Amino acid sequence: MARSRMLLLLVLAVCLHLATSVRTQARFFLPEAKQQQHNAVVEQMEALGIAPFQTADAQATWAKLKSDSSEFDLVWSATDPPFATLEIPHQFAAKVNHLPGAQLLTSPDALHQHVDAQKKKHAKFYFDFVPGHFELPRDRAKLTNAYTEVRKKAEFEPKRSRDAHVYQRFLIRESAANSNGGQAKKAAMFVTEEDLQSKLQSSEFAGKNVVVDQYVEPLLLDNHKFRVGFYVAVTSVKPLRVYVYDHPLIQIAKAEYPTKLKVESDPAAYNFDQYIAPWDFPDLQADFHELPSATRKGTNAWHVLKRHLRKKGVDTKRLQDEVDAAIAKVILSSRGNFQAEQAKLKRARTQQGDGSPSDLSDSFFDLWKFDFEIDDKAKPWLVGVVSNPSMEAQQSVLATDEAVKKQLLHDLLNLVGVHPQARLPFEKFFRPSDPKFCSDKCVDKNRAWDTACWSCPGWFSPHVARNLFTASTEYARRGNFNLVFPSLEQELTQFLDTEFSEYDIAFDRYMRALSNGYADLPDFPVSDRAVVCVYREHCSNHGDCVNGMCSCDANYEGRTCYIPKDVEQEELHIQQEAGDTGGQDAETWKERVENLWHGADAADKSNRPGAEEEMQWSFLMTARRCDSEHINQVRFTMVATSRVMPIAFLGLLQENLSLAVVEGVTYLSVFLLMLHVHSSGKRNATMLIAALLQVMIVELVFYDTERWHGHALVMMVSDRLPLYSVLLQAQLYYIAFVAVSRLRIDPFFQPFAMGSLVVLLVFPFELLGSKFLWWTWHDTDPMLADRLMGVPCHALFYYYFFAFGFLSAHHVLRSVWLVGDYYEEEHWQSEWSYVLLMPLVSTIFAMGFLILGYHSTVHLIGIEAQVCFFVLIGFSLLLFWMADRERDAPDVQKVLEPVDAYDSDWLYSCADHAVNQMVFLHSLVLVLLVLLVDPMNIVSLGHHQPLGNCLESESFYSLVGLQHSRKKYLCVHNFDEPFNLCNYPVAQLLYEDSWYMVCGGGYNNFASFAALVLGCAVVLNLLFFQILKRPQRTRIVSFRKNML
């Protein structure tokens, strides 16, 4: 009896010991001496209730994993573990924050070699997102070949006209074994081998191991380079699970990026050892509704940056997809390496009663920071992978990211499942199957989200179900981590370097079933349900993505939340259903959009029979709400698919005030023009008509496929040519013609003066025309590549030589065709023949002069267009000045004839002449526009370069017979014009259509624009005041008199 009692007490003691030995609090272990990198992590773990584990001998070594692994749940190390010598116990349940084989990604050299191998295995196209990397002196020969390769690629790059070294730069920095903790070495830029040798001999790099990376020409954020670091967690390799945190680190270079980056430029313009936080950056501050702090994350900086980039025309959805794809491809193609390195781990010898060894596939995880730089074509480039990124809070001028880092650690630890409570008992879920339940509920294989079906026949074996249970419960704890693999699309699977295992298949099946399980639309079958979103951006930023489908905000609807709800219409519908209203037809929100833009006539047309076929519109409405702190407008945007209708005047004032003002001033100037023509006689009237015809020829023949005009109030030629543009150019011809006629210079020199004056008059219009979207140019035409402050030199040459040819033709025709110095009624046939012949003869002359003075020098000889243009203008002004110095010579006075263009003094003062007033009015308006109108608020609807296939090209010939090639369509993902597509969804743009809407961009340098326009205004007014106030006569030439 006593023996039985002793046995009972022993059993109770053992049970009590076992009960008390089951830990309910998580513990972490630091296998190395505590370092500064540990502080933020340790602080956050303790805040989450994860206690530190102290060994009995107070020794922190990796050897404790073998002896004490059952006493802690997490192993956190600031350095790479010694996997080669590490011994893992037979039963191991702790999590280690490093993945065996991760050096393949975190070592820059290993990463580059790995990506190069994948390019050969798959195709360069799929892995073309890592810049070239060279270890010196090992890769000296490869670097030499890279010099030649980049120069060939940049040889025909249009941007070379503005930056001779574009796409030819490299970075040199001190070599590092791997990128640990995020402290990258400071880099220096170079271009040539001579630059490199100079750097190698400098004190900064002399005697050190260095590496060279190809430079990424950046997409600038208000003239600042920036970098985005995405936090990536890999929690298992069986099945492989890759998560990306939704709050990346954004670093903005401290120094402003120079117009031309040179070797001696400030390195702070392209290094990020010191950087500006996004909430401290002026261009982004307005979108931060809440600054981050020590306790609150604040507004997501990545979302703010993407919103800013969308305003600049960047397709941020495509950008995010490319980032996610690059991350997934690098990791997926490395899984075989991870598994191989994990298989090499030593396991402790088995002891009697140990049972089967634990599976290590979920025992290792890793957190990396993938650093991306965005190039000038909005393509992301992976420039480095940082192991164990710093979690220390960074205090900036206005805020701190402490709460962001804390939340990142919080979500990571929850995702990994450090707390014992997070490890739910699998056995409670995987119970023996109920045949009736299986036959009734689990016939549909899409029901993989239901754990009750997993044990049914034909579903999952126990070991697969256990693994799937771990993965699915982890996914439920993901917090702000987004799962990028496995994805609902199968495109990325091809990059796995191992077979798609049964565990991968099970988890992929579960994720698809989970998405399908939320199908609640009766007309949209579960089996056919397509995933439409991953991020909020996929829901037009007006809804949240819930398991692959958009859950729209209260005031939006549609599958991607792009249709604003019409609250009034909904209320009306409810009232109609309740019988409170009659059967009157209600105006839809689409009709109201049409009425806003087109006036009442559009509404009337849309209500008549057949109007739906006559006018088909695709609408995008971006609603902005008003509150007490900021006022947002409501903008309705349209893309026409067929018939074009004129824009209402109020709509034009709202969307492009500058165009409406210039058009109105042009029509007002016609009054002044007619006053001058009336005072000067009919000979000037016929010349003006000839100038109008000349402008029409140039616009319709020479600019038909090079320039597109924004839609104005009055359009001609199938809505492609605005009336104001023709009148404006004719006015400038007339002003220059009258001014030249007032000069006392030899007729041989007059065309040079005419061309120079026309260019001087037209330049400020061209300068603001492209910026304010009065017109747009072909994006990839090599003729238009050389630009002066955005103005194609090609257009300036055409203005000069057509004006030159116009006056030359005028002198020839007047000498051989016209009779007398003034308009003669009895010779009206000759007078009007002059009107018809002038455009033809001047065009022939202009083409000849263009061949000699432009195409031959620029395209045959190879002189840069800007150099040739300034030489031409300088030479013309020299001849102008030389001819003007001869005006008082006696032999010149003897041959003076009556002036044929009288400048009226209708207001009794030379300063108030009609021509002077036109010059003053135009220049005043341009100055006011550049000072008062922000081009970022401009929207231009009309014909532009057609959208289409980015790879389709077309050939054309120049006047000298040279064949050139250009892209046939505007590539919506890659164009270099100063506008954007108004954040319109790229997938909804109509390809091979030229009628769409574009939005303006900001100034690169406002001071330069303002100075040029103001300078032109002052010079023009002073110059024409001095020329047009002269009462003297001017010389003419008459072949008829000489022949007689």
UniProtKB/TrEMBL annotation:
Transmembrane residue ranges: 657-677, 684-703, 723-740, 752-777, 797-820, 832-854, 860-881, 914-933, 1006-1025
Keywords assigned by UniProt, alphabetized: Disulfide bond, Membrane, Signal, Transmembrane, Transmembrane helix
Chain ranges of the DUF7802 domain: 652-1028
The keyword Thylakoid appears for this protein: no
Claim: Signal is one of the keywords in the record: yes
Epidermal growth factor-like domain residues: 537-561
Positions in coiled-coil regions: none
Residues in the signal sequence: 1-21
Domain of life: Eukaryota
InterPro entries for this protein: DUF7802 (IPR056704), EGF_extracell (IPR013111), TTL/TTLL_fam (IPR004344)
Matches recorded under PANTHER family: AGAP005361-PA, SPIROCYCLASE, AVEC FAMILY
The protein, known as: EGF-like domain-containing protein
